[in-house]
Design a protein that fits this description.
By secondary structure, the protein is an alpha/beta fold. It has two domains: 6-189, EAL domain (TIM Barrel, Alpha-Beta Barrel), CATH 3.20.20; 202-402, Hypothetical protein af1432, CATH 1.10.3210. It contains 19 helices and eight strands. The chain is elongated, with a radius of gyration of 23 Å. The chain has an eight-stranded mixed barrel with strand order 1-2-3-4-5-6-7-8, surrounded by five helices. The longest helix is centred in the C-terminal third of the chain and has 18 residues, at 385-402. 49% of the residues lie in helices and 12% in strands.
């Protein structure tokens, strides 16, 4: 059995693109599926890794954690390690509900656990489990959505969320909503819907300018305070932040530059990041912004030593801007025309080239569990599995604490 293990996660959304929770994906191979070992062992390792040695709440940023459990795991009461409000029990490995299976479901249902039926094949024998369910997942790559109209009617009395897995595009999402799906899982939110000819609103241009100024080197408080001064909300927010930081002492701020300098470089970068992203994510899922923040934070952590040390100062902003194309629905090269960024950052964002591009690719694949040579990369780059898992949890917690 391979020793290397890692955890990926995939967001699950409601119709309004609000994040319901994350499915935690146990991996011990580069493939995006359960490893070729006993499913019960896989789930046991997941529990140990993320509950005993980690922080599942931090990893899922306070949202529900969807975890796969086999019947054997349920009989051995693995879910009882978790609070009822923290997890969704995903049922896997059962072909047909038996009397014993129903008894087990009722046991967890009565305790207040949310239960999800995965691998749903539309067979009538599953109807008996509907009263115990929170959510039903349908793989839309395998099952034609047009067959689901009667299922939607069956589920209505039980207030069960019909959830589409393997959603790849926003267009697909819209058509699935018409069928009756109320939740979605897949990579659709990673794909930019590029609108040709679109121009950026002045406020968005200003935010991009602010981000690029903040990450210019050497750090220039004059330039940053000048950009902030052009927006009343930014100015007020900066002064409030100084007030929050300066607990116990009275600070008399006479200029925005003084306020920026008082915060210091690190806190000011964080302040700018949060404000700029919040202004760029209007009418968009905040999952994209959160993903960008976590990507930046994790890239910065990985780049502190070893293989990526020479790009450590550029890592955070590269991760932060990796989702900008999706957020703004514009081609990356067009967006970067408004941002004077260092050449390695542009190469990484537009072409995924160079050392920074390699770091971006690796980090993104690690976080989302996309197919890729993660295990080989860990070995090649001499990155310790426990280290990157800890940093991923830490970045998730940091992002959650920002409360975007």
């Amino acid at each position: 059995m391979m020793q290397t293990t890692y955890i990926a996660r995939q967001a699950i959304f409601d119709r309004n693109s609000n994040t319901i929770g994350y499915e935690l994906l146990f991996r011990n191979s580069p493939e995006n599926k359960f490893p070729e070992l006993d499913l019960n062992v896989a789930t046991s390792k997941l529990i140990i890794q993320n509950h005993i040695h980690g922080d599942i709440s931090a990893l899922c940023m306070g949202k529900l954690a969807f975890i796969n459990f086999t019947e054997h795991c349920l009989i051995n009461k693995y879910p009882l390690l978790f609070n009822t409000q923290d997890i969704v029990i995903e049922l896997v490995g059962s072909n047909k509900p038996t009397t014993r299976f129903l008894k087990i479901l009722k046991y967890y249902f009565d305790k207040g656990y949310k239960i999800a039926l995965t691998e749903y094949d539309l067979e009538d024998h599953w109807d008996v489990v509907f009263p115990f369910l929170y959510l039903v997942k349908v793989d839309v790559e395998k099952i034609n959505a047009k067959r689901l109209a009667p299922i939607v009617q069956k589920l209505k009395p039980f207030d069960v969320k019909l959830t589409a897995e393997k959603v790849e595009t926003r267009f697909q999402l819209q058509s699935l909503a018409e069928v009756g799906f109320s939740a979605y899982q897949g990579f659709f939110y990673h794909e930019p819907e590029v609108i040709e000819g679109q121009t950026l609103a002045p406020i968005k241009t200003q935010m991009l300018h602010l981000i690029s100024e903040t990450f210019n080197m050497p750090f220039n408080f004059d330039s940053i305070s000048e950009v902030i001064s052009q927006d009343v909300n930014l100015s007020v927010s900066l002064l409030k932040l100084v007030n929050n930081v300066a607990t116990g002492t009275r600070i008399e701020i006479t200029s925005l530059k003084q306020a920026a300098a008082y915060l210091g470089e690190d806190k000011l970068k964080q302040f700018v990041t949060i404000l700029a992203l919040s202004k760029l994510t209007v009418d968009q899922s905040d999952e994209i912004a959160k993903q960008a923040l976590i990507t930046g934070k994790l890239m910065a952590a990985i780049a502190k030593d070893k293989a990526f040390k020479e790009v450590k100062d550029l890592a955070f902003i590269t991760g932060l801007l990796s989702a900008i194309e999706v957020l703004l629905s514009m081609p990356m090269d067009k967006i970067l025309e408004t941002m004077p960024l260092a050449q390695p950052i542009e190469s990484a964002l537009v072409k995924h080239e160079g050392l920074l591009g390699e770091l971006l690719n690796f980090t993104t694949k690690y976080i989302t569990g996309q197919n890729g040579e993660i295990e080989q990369s860990l070995s090649k780059l001499s990155i310790d599995e426990d280290f990157i898992h800890r940093e991923f949890v830490s970045a998730s917690k940091w992002c959650n604490d920002l409360d975007i």
